[in-house]
């Protein structure tokens, strides 16, 4: 969470607010995107990715960005159910790791 620390410029209260906002955004993404993957709802996957994109970009959440990009590619290649299930598992793991990192910051 180096980017958050950098943006807060030593203001602990602001840093906490940023972390809470990121956690809220990631939690919402986790719920919606996981559901979309399970249902192979391409529109919902796209909407969930699009909504969180500014947060991912601003705070340089690279692992999450990579997983979301992999999901986009799965849709484009009309991947198998097994590939979508593996993607869902990877997404949940990365989301949980990120939420844990935010709680520890």
From TrEMBL:
Gene Ontology MF annotations: protein kinase activity
Source superkingdom: Bacteria
InterPro entries, per the entry: HPT_dom_sf, Sig_transdc_His_kin_Hpt_dom
Protein name in the entry: HPt domain-containing protein
Record organism: Echinicola pacifica
A single GO BP: phosphorelay signal transduction system
Residue span, HPt domain: 11-105
SUPFAM superfamilies according to UniProt: Histidine-containing phosphotransfer domain, HPT domain
Phosphohistidine carried by residues: 50
Keywords: Phosphoprotein
């Amino acid at each position: 969470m180096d980017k958050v620390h950098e943006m807060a410029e030593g203001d602990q209260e602001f840093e906490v607010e940023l972390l809470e906002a990121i956690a809220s955004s990631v939690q919402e993404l986790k719920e919606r995107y996981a559901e979309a993957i399970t249902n192979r709802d391409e529109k919902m996957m796209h909407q969930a990715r699009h909504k969180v994109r500014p947060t991912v970009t601003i705070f340089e959440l690279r692992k999450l960005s990579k997983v979301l990009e992999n999901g986009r590619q799965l849709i484009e290649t009309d991947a198998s159910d097994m590939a979508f299930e593996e993607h869902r598992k990877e997404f949940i793991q990365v989301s949980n790791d990120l939420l844990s990192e935010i709680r520890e910051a």
